[in-house]
Every structure is written in structure tokens, then in C-alpha cells.
Batch of 2 targets.
Target 1
Amino acid sequence: MTVAGLNQWDPMPVPIKTLIALLLFLAVGAIAGGSVILSDPSGAFAQMSPRDLAGSPFPDFFMPGLVLLIVLGFGSALAAFLLWKLPGRVSGSSYKSPSSDTADGCNRSTPPWAWPCSRC
């Protein structure tokens, strides 16, 4: 049975795999960008002007580079890892409903994000 990218033989749906791939793409770019900015906080190596920081609370690019590296880089990598290693807890593939058929006619034996109708 396939419902919106959910295959009963595949424990991880296609949308979750796509999300993991996008998170890894973001993580690689943010880790590379944050590392470049932290290697030279003046911004000269990355061809950024200190005028770009006019009106911000930062005197140089150290803090923005650190946020880019830690939050966007390592945070995205951690989110992708958790989605990959804990698919049942994160994506709902181990979702068990007490009753599969309800009074409104919806079959709730699939995870909530795979319900095909909005009234469920």
C-alpha cells in the first residue's frame, strides 16, 4: 500500500528521506561557510565588507560565523542524524492507533501525517 510516499515495506517515507538530504545539504554549506568566516572574522577572506555589519551589534563577523557554524551547520547535521537513526520516534512510522476505523470513516492505522483527508 502506498499513500503519499508511504510504502508499507519501507520504514522511512520519501518525504523524510528528502528532508534528511536537504538538512545534510544545509549542514555542509553552513559548516563550510562558518569555518571560512571564523578563519578570518574581518571578512576579507570571504570578500565581505565590514560595512555589511553597519547597524548590527557585531563589530566583526565572528559571532555571525559562529552562529552559522553551530546552529545552522551542526544543528542541521544533528537533526538529519536524529531523523535517520530514530525514524519511528520522529516520523511516526511506529504509530499505533487503538482503533483503526473511527466514526468519521477515516482509517487511522497509518501515522497521522499520512492521513489522506483533512477531516481526520
Note: The mean pLDDT is 78.
Target 2
Amino acid sequence: MAKPLRSENPNPAPVQFSHFGVLNDGERSKAATITSISINVGLAAIILILCAVVKNNPVIAKKVADLTLPPQPKPDPVIEAELKRNFQLAGQLGATGTPLFVIGDRVMNGAVGYDMLKDAIAKARSKG
């Protein structure tokens, strides 16, 4: 039998994160901190300048978008038709949300919670 994702223990052991080392691990020098701050401030200034240029120049904005955004695929009529059929079938089956759980003869839409899923599984198993 699979282990549950959540413990049945009402008082689980606490999780402690003792060291991330993101900002200061206690051994960094002031020079390293100043360098890091300077680089981040410089990058922020460059981004602000680029934003101002893009905002005021639609030609450059289009070029930046072409360089940075992924290409948009052209719709395939066969795929679109299949998706439409799938959505219609889902509606007929009562699938209105995600995630969707089918447990026994019961359809459960949306995030229903651990206790509700556990209860539905127990009822389905008791029916045989």
C-alpha cells in the first residue's frame, strides 16, 4: 500500500532550515557584499533604461519581443477539433474543474482536500 502524502500524526516533527547562505553565511567580507549590491543596482539601472526605451519606441519594443518571447505556433485545425471534442466530452461527464478525481462511481472536481479524498476512497472500497 502506498504511503500517504500527509502524516496521520496530529503533531508532526518540525522541519528546521538552519542555513541558506543566500545573503550572508557569516564569512563573507564587506567588499563581497558591496560588490554584490553594486552589481544588482547596476543591473536594475540597465533594466530601467531598457524599459524606458522600449516604452517610448514601438519598433524597438517589437524587436525586443521577437528576441525574448517564444514563437507562437499556428493553430492546427485537427488539434483544435480534437480539443473541442475533448472539452465537450468532459462537460458531458461532469468534469468542470482541475484537478478531477474519479473514485469508484464518484466524480470530484477541484481541490477537494485530503480528508474528503480519504473518505471517498474508503466508501468506494467498502462498496467492493
Note: The mean pLDDT is 82.
